[in-house]
Amino acid sequence: MLTAVSCATRDLAPGDRLDAWQRVLSRTFVDVEVTVDRDRPWTGELAARRLGALQIATEDFGPGTILRGARTAAADPRTHILVRRQLAGTALLLQDGRTAELHPGGLAFHDARRPFRIVLPARQRARILMVPRALLRLEERQLHALTATAVDGAEGGAAALLLPLLDGLVDEVTRVTAAGREQLARTVVDILATVALERIGGPPESALWERITASVRARLGEPGLAPQDIADQHAISLRYLHRLFQRQGTTVGAWIRARRLEAAHEELALPGAAHRSIAAVAARWGFTSPSHFSRAFRETYGMSPAQWRRAAGAVQAD
Q1: Residue 27, pLDDT above cutoff 70
Q2: What is the C-alpha to C-alpha distance for residues 133 and 80, in angstroms, rounded to an integer?
Q3: Could you give the domains of the chain?
Q4: Is the peptide bond before 63 cis (omega within 30 degrees of 0)?
Q5: Which residue in 19, 125, 136, 290 has the fewest CB atoms around it within 10 Å?
Q6: Quick one: pLDDT at residue 138?
Q7: CA nearest 247: which of 195, 205, 196?
Q8: Average model confidence (pLDDT) for the chain?
């Protein structure tokens, strides 16, 4: 569902503008207090669209300050993560004892669960994404380390590749079908999660690969083991998980199948496992269908499980 919110203070009487602007920001994002210098001219424009759980807004406002105080945060149940992508002008985002100075092209995360302040020295424009914290699949300690740290594609790394892609996907939202918007929203969240992990110094890819494969080996006997389960266990996006396996020249499903076959192959050769049926060995390593197991085993090893068991027994007897 694509719903829209819009507000322009220039359409209101001067005395009504500040209260109306504070109300629309609080309704669209989270409860905040807005202050402006009444001796300086200011205006505010907001256009927001919601795609299921994800909200995308463009804010044109300043000079002024947006504050979410401790009492407000405690009283407001909304705990989304907000991502500010600066489009024009500058902004200072303060949270958790840090200050991110954002210039056009910069991006920073802030957490609605805790107080924050945004200082806008002059009129500026920003895109703001509001994401349920669970969708980023980051631990609380990771979120606490992420807030008010500026991300800039000019620094290189994943951000240099992903931030322009992020902008393109967001611009595409209104031009695709409802089904396409849902897919775009998931892709946007995956990109944000990847950028966040890189910014906080997530585990090196080699170490992450070792950690993931070790945990998967320990879960080979779970018939329902799925890529999403693995991604959730390691607090990474599903897209990033698939990319890790692709870089190894395989897929998640193919890697799991190969490890299951290896484990069954080894067990069938053990004298101590001779009393177990082939179906029991297959089930032990996550195969729910004995016939499927037998076909996969023959394709991989050139003989049936029974033939391998006999051959292994003959070798051991010699």
Answers
A1: yes
A2: 5
A3: 2-199 (2.60.120.10), 212-317 (1.10.10.60)
A4: yes
A5: 19
A6: 81
A7: 205
A8: 87
